[in-house]
Write a structure and sequence with these properties.
Blueprint: E1 2-4, H1 10-23, H2 31-38, E2 48-54, E3 60-71, E4 76-86, H3 95-109, E5 115-116, H4 124-132
Parallel strand pairs: 4-5
Antiparallel strand pairs: 1-2, 2-3, 3-4
Length: about 150
């Protein structure tokens, strides 16, 4: 079952966020910073929303985050599924697909013209799911400025 993350279920989300960050080998993971940052999306925020997947026995087994941005080439609003994570013991059970479909419907309801996301080139498990859906992909180079942004 997919739930909108709110103040009542937010604490169940935080351990999943930590595991997601560990999966992607994020540096300097901070539960306090995660709490502060992600709590802003557990209300009716126009910039994004988070969704929590619970199993039939109530286990928080996965989550997704959608932020909104804009596409200059489309001259339109787009949904960016910035996060998608399922606990390893629950992968292959349709949770990721259900979360993607939910995010797609949410993006459409928010007048986004598409839902887009990226994944690591070595994340073969995720790519198998994404390739099984009605998706297309192009090879892009993603650059990240390291260090402080110059003034």
């Amino acid at each position: 079952m997919i739930e909108i993350v709110n103040t009542e279920n937010f604490e169940a989300l935080l351990p999943l966020i930590r595991k997601y960050q560990e999966f992607y080998q994020a540096a300097d993971i901070s539960d306090a910073r995660n709490h502060s940052f992600f709590s802003r999306f557990n209300t009716d925020n126009p910039f994004g929303r988070q969704f929590l997947f619970r199993t039939t026995d109530g286990i928080a087994a996965g989550f997704a985050t959608v932020y909104f941005s804009f596409s200059s080439t489309l001259a339109a609003k787009v949904g960016v599924m910035n996060d998608l994570y399922t606990l390893p013991d629950y992968r292959g059970q349709g949770i990721g697909k259900a979360l993607i479909e939910h995010c797609l419907e949410f993006a459409k309801q928010q007048d986004a013209v598409r839902l887009q996301w990226t994944t690591a080139t070595d994340n073969q498990t995720a790519q198998r799911l994404y390739n099984s859906l009605n998706t297309a992909h192009k090879p892009w180079l993603i650059y990240t400025y390291h260090g402080e942004i110059p003034a």
